[in-house]
Every structure is written in structure tokens, then in C-alpha cells.
Design goal:
alpha/beta; 7 strands; 5 helices; disordered N terminus; Nucleotidyltransferase, domain 5
Length: 189
């Protein structure tokens, strides 16, 4: 299991620590074709209260990496106050991006180590804003390895993608899924 902490700026870390609220965020993305129709999903658990929120959505033409990013963005957006977020994902792209690459990309004017423009920049910019509101701790797990919350996220993301395809939707589709909620192959560095 990979672990890490993102605590850019003392204001965010102090703010998140003051709330003493720790949540667990599990995320996953799914894509049929790359690019092709894709889905994203997250499961957010508040251990202190036992509350759980599941949300999912889909896009007609996207990539797996974009769906992985959207899952984290949507999960963080659902939080109403600064929190300590235990983020668990099977996407090394997302976790390495947050833990290592993002600050480097920003420092290089949104360029990779190879001096190429960062792919999915608008999503990374949104994620950068959101990470400023929370203290993030990263946990990598292998995909499709029986982790209950990861498997649930995968099922929700696939379901959202398949629903979009069945309904012949165009563009972004997001809807309610589960209890209490609304429902690319690249590297950086």
C-alpha cells in the first residue's frame, strides 16, 4: 500500500486538523475504449457517524484517466468543511499526480518533465484548488483485487457508463446512485 500526505500550506493543514473530521474517500473510473464512454464513482465514508455517500456519473467521450480524476474531484467537492481525507484509489496516475507531479507541473508552468503540456490540465487545476481545502493522505490499492470499496466504486462507474450508453446520452451525465448520494493512458512527472 502506498501512503503519502499532501499538506500544501499551513492554513489548509491547520484548518483540516481543527475540524478533527476524518473521512475515507474511495474512487474509481472506468472507460470503454480510450477514448470512449466512461464513468466515475466515489464512496465517501464518515467513520465517526457511519454515514456513507455514493455518487457516480458518466461522459460520452472521455479517457480512463479523466474519469479517475473526476471521481476524486467529485468526492472532494461533496465535502462541506475542511477535512482530513484518507484517499484510496487504484490509480497511480491520480495518486502520483497529487503526491509528486502536481507541484512540479505548476512550477514549470503546467509542463511535464519532458516539457510537454500537462494532459487534463483543467481537471488538475480543479484538483489543485480542492486539495487546498483539505489534508489528503494517499493509499494505493491494486484494482480488481477484492477491496470492497474499490469494487463498489468500479461497479458504480461501470453502471453509470452503461446507463449513458443505453440511453444514448450526449455529453456529461451525472445522477443519483446508491444510498444518500447523487449520483488515457498517459504519465506525468
Amino acid at each position: 500500500m502506498m501512503g503519502g500526505v499532501c499538506g500544501r500550506g499551513s492554513v489548509r493543514v491547520r484548518s483540516a486538523a481543527m475540524t478533527s473530521e476524518t473521512v475515507e474517500l474511495f474512487t474509481d473510473g472506468a472507460c470503454s475504449g480510450n477514448p470512449g464512454p466512461g464513468g466515475w464513482a466515489f464512496v465517501l465514508v464518515h467513520p465517526a457517524s457511519g454515514k456513507k455517500i455514493e455518487r457516480a456519473g458518466a461522459e460520452r467521450l472521455t479517457t480512463n484517466n479523466r474519469m479517475e480524476l473526476r471521481a476524486v474531484i467529485e468526492g472532494l467537492r461533496s465535502l462541506h468543511e475542511p477535512s482530513i481525507v484518507e484517499l484510496t484509489s487504484d490509480s497511480k496516475y491520480v495518486l502520483d499526480g497529487l503526491n509528486t507531479w502536481l507541484d512540479n507541473w505548476i512550477g514549470r508552468g503546467w509542463r511535464t518533465a519532458a516539457r510537454k503540456p500537462v494532459k487534463n490540465r483543467e481537471l488538475w487545476e480543479r484538483l489543485d484548488e480542492l486539495r487546498g481545502e483539505h489534508q489528503l493522505r494517499f493509499h494505493w490499492i491494486p484494482g480488481h483485487a477484492g477491496h470492497a470499496q474499490n469494487e463498489r466504486c468500479d461497479a458504480l462507474a461501470v453502471e453509470a457508463r452503461e446507463r449513458l450508453v443505453r440511453e444514448g446520452g450526449t455529453g456529461l451525465k451525472s445522477g443519483r446512485v446508491g444510498r444518500g448520494g447523487d449520483g488515457q493512458s498517459e504519465t506525468g512527472g
